[in-house]
Amino acid sequence: MTNKKAYPKAWLFVLPVVALVAFNALIPLMTVVNYSVQETFGNNVFFWEGVKWFEQVLNSERFHASLLRQLTFTGIILSIEVPLGIAIALTMPTRGIWVSVCLVLMALPLLIPWNVVGAMWNIFALPEIGLLGQIINGMGFDYNFTQQPLSAWFTTILMDVWHWTSLVVLLAYAGLQSIPDAYYQAAKIDGASGWAVFRYIQLPKMKRVLTIAILLRFMDSFMIYTEPFVLTGGGPGNTTTFLSIDLVKIALGQFDLGPAAAMSLVYFLIVLLLCWVFYTLMMRTEEQ
Amino acid sequence: MRKVVWLAPTLYILFLMLPIYWLLNMSFKTTNEILGAFTLWPQEFTLDNYVKIFTDPTWYNGYFNSLTYVLINTSISVSVALPAAYAFSRYRFLGDKHLFFWLLTNRMAPPAVFALPFFQLYSAVNLFDTHIAVALAHCLFNIPLAVWILEGFMSGVPKELDETAYVDGYSFWRFFLRIFLPTIAAGVGVAAFFCFMFSWVELLLAKTLTSVAAKPIAATMTRTASTAGYELGLLAAAGSLTIVPGAFVIYFVRNYIAKGFALGRV
């Protein structure tokens, strides 16, 4: 990152990218900003409203509730997927035919369209016809994710773990693969314990890829929409209504453009702020 | 000890396969059997659900539509990301770091935020319900990702390669196309794989930007789920078929997949 040549014309190389992304990002963003400060009663007639919608969103209990649900969800899935992913990467075979088999099978959930993931888990978890529903009820628990908030949360979290843990596994595995054998031999000569090898050799080497894993998982889980929407529809009640689901309900369901736009901007800023913190931390570790 | 170590990945893969098995299981059952009895495998094995999908144009066109915009998106994203990634990995220029971060912020933008403005934007430029609209919309998050991945792979190539080529009298484009691209071929493959993947799995924007002519398979499925009530077998068959293209592309990049998920930065 340090000894790069200064070359102002390099801008020409990035111009196509900037043009395409700007078309897709800036125009819609300006539209959202526009709606967020105005009131409309249809027919393209708009009135200036200033920061009214922002005040409304920031003070609304509904927004606080979805934000809290979102943070809880993201926190839970991160604290399950990251350690689980590392553990599986550590126990995966390191060479031979089984490596390819493991990688291909593990990557499979990542390439299934998100609504199919939701539909699949719906069929899988339904109490009457689903395998999971039958197993849990057979063990004597009262489980019905369409009616009980706790079951709905359990199913949503299990679905996300199923869907995305492989991403962490693949990243951690890539980090482990980059450790030269000499490190392990040196550790063996020193008589290092398994824990010491993990703590002082494997974990530092995985630091960089794990930061990427956490960053990606954080971003994607914070934007989650399709899977829980298909699985639970945000219910029962509002118990699994995460930020995106709530936003789409307000924008496309109730067509409240002003509040929806203000909420969009607040939402986007929260993601941006948290990602900026991660990104700065990541760049700092990269420079070390 | 060896056996215990093998247990964790095996159990994990088993856990991954169970819901997929259940989906396949459902897709070979008749609606009566699905709703009538709980069976671990199809008692009256039927291919009717698949036959319906392969003979009904509203169904199989969904697959063509999805594949069309995914392929358009992948080619656009990778080809514009290549020079940009090269610039980011080799040169310093005005605002380079800010630009890079700005690109990444678009990967962070929740699609739900952009759904409505996208609908209005693409309607305004008369592209609503076309494959190219969805392909362009997906560039929003795929181009930043492709730039990020390619930049990682390119930074892994020593700068001496470029310098030697120039000393040998190569022009820039000749060097880039004849020497540099083959060197990072794996990176290009991985970037294409990721663009394919994220465009293939995304539904919210694809559904918002299409109505009939470019309707993706995933949207066809949602419609079936809501209007036809409980045609679970059909839904399961359609879902099972959406796994096929993904499995196909994973097979091609299987040797680079781990490095690819690390965005070339291992």
Mean model confidence by pLDDT of chain B? 85
Average pLDDT of chain A, to the nearest integer? 85
Instruction: Could you tell me the CATH topology label of the largest domain in chain B.
Output: MetI-like fold
CATH architecture of chain A: Orthogonal Bundle
Radius of gyration of chain A: 23 Å
Question: Based on the structure, what is the oligomeric state of the protein chains?
Answer: heterodimer
Head-to-tail CA distance between termini of chain B = 29 Å
Globally, the shape of chain B reads: globular
Largest sheet of chain A: 2 strands, antiparallel
CATH superfamily of chain A: MetI-like
**Count of spatially separate domains of chain B:** 2
Describe this structure in words.
The complex is a heterodimer of chains A (288) and B (266). Chain A has helices spanning 11-36, 52-59, 61-91, 97-107, 114-125, 131-138, 149-177, 181-189, 194-222, 226-231, 243-253, 257-287; strands at 5-6, 38-40, 46-48. By secondary structure, chain A is mostly helical. Chain A has one domain (60-287): MetI-like (MetI-like fold), CATH 1.10.3720. In chain A, strands 2-3 form a two-stranded antiparallel ribbon. In chain A, helix 1 (11-36) runs antiparallel to helix 12 (257-287) and helix 3 packs antiparallel against helix 9. The relative contact order of chain A is 0.13. Chain B has 266 residues and is mainly α. Chain B folds into two domains: 1-46, no CATH class; 53-261, MetI-like fold (Orthogonal Bundle), CATH 1.10.3720.10. Helices cover 77% and strands 1% of the residues of chain B. Classes of the chains: A mainly alpha (288), B mainly alpha (266). The interface between A and B is large, with 95 and 95 residues. Strand 1 (5-6) of chain A pairs parallel with strand 1 (91-92) of chain B, so a sheet runs across the interface.
